[in-house]
């Protein structure tokens, strides 16, 4: 997980900002799925 994203999530949890937590969670899953799909396609070639 990128350091900036980790910091943002920790800040949102500390503030108990549910909207921000949901948004950052979606960002993490998008980042993670995109990173995995790129790794799989590059290993297939």
Automatic annotation (TrEMBL):
Domain of life of the source: Bacteria
InterPro entries (alphabetical): CmpA (IPR047764)
Name of one Pfam family that matches: spore_CmpA
Protein name: Cortex morphogenetic protein CmpA
Taxonomic source organism: Paenibacillus oralis
């Amino acid at each position: 997980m990128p350091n900036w994203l980790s910091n943002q999530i920790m800040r949102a949890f500390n503030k108990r900002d549910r909207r921000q937590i949901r948004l950052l969670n979606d960002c993490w899953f998008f980042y993670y799925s995109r990173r995995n799909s790129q790794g799989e396609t590059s290993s297939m070639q």
